[in-house]
């Protein structure tokens, strides 16, 4: 297959030069990698190159993962051979499954068996193994251990407790001259991350996960309305107005600058908040997210990430070998130790060297067990449109542009139609 104009345009858009793409030879492959873990991908690439003698070009994905969807769509529609390996969010697997190679015979069985069964299972679609898990992601609550101690507060069990503690500490710190202090930073920009943050609030309040596994649209209910109205009340009080435009990285910056008591994010923030440049080294606590109502469970959004090989790769075996390597035990251990990425390989949860740097790993396993799963299984190829409709509605509610009850009712009607175009 020759390179298409479309493919090259797409590659140029993310800064891959034509000469780099053109220099592809038999044992040269090319992979996408998330910008937040670029250095880790480079480490894996170098180790694999040394081991195999092949070369792999690592391409940084757009800063906002959502923006990779149209880029991938463009490359795949053009049957581009420029990129062999895609980095994939769990919610994209259904969307891209028809363009991904079946890895079941290309990845050694023992490496498949080493993964969490349910995480691997989420990548088994239409009888194919379309991708291999690389790490687990689940929404977690970070907090300032030092400030909670200073004010004699316990880590909150409910969102209402979180709100009260956040407000009290924020106000006291401001009165003490720390005028930049906020109570809670999270992600309320209009994007996929808001689907995660909102589903956590709603599910932990007994309000479900937008669409149930059997396809029933559940989002139009009083528990969901209550959860979103509570969160709306945070904007401008315990969370800056700017939170309506915060993604993970923007909100993390405020927390790590020392200006937020509580912070919702993924496991990698344990790593970044302890790196040089962070103002809160050794001041950070972490726990599963609070619950909305007694009897409900903490419902961190589940977001494992994967690597898959495109059907158009000219080097499928070499590409699968790299996928096997970067998702294998050695590299997952390296990522856990270097940057707090939570492995998708259960054996690493008992590895002493991993536990030494990630002592809280047991808590995240509990968080995986209680997690909220986005409705990508049922909605498949229409997931993106369903999620967009949801996060736009939630954003309108949080920004005070829509009434929660009316907006969720209207959304449910739209989802009834959207969910079937899968
Ligand atoms: C993280 C999660 C992913 C989620 C995204 C939202 O990358 O792993 O599943 O979709 O955040 O921003």
Automatic annotation (TrEMBL):
Keywords: Periplasm, Signal, Transport
InterPro entries found in the cross-reference section: Bact_solute-bd_prot1, SBP
Signal peptide start-end: 1-20
Keyword Cell membrane: no
Cellular component terms (Gene Ontology): periplasmic space
Chief place of localization: periplasm
Source domain of life: Bacteria
SUPFAM superfamilies: Periplasmic binding protein-like II
Keyword Cytoplasm: no
Location relative to the cell: Periplasm
Pfam families noted in UniProt: SBP_bac_1
Similarity section: Belongs to the bacterial solute-binding protein 1 family.
Protein name, per record: ABC transporter substrate-binding protein
Organism: Martelella endophytica
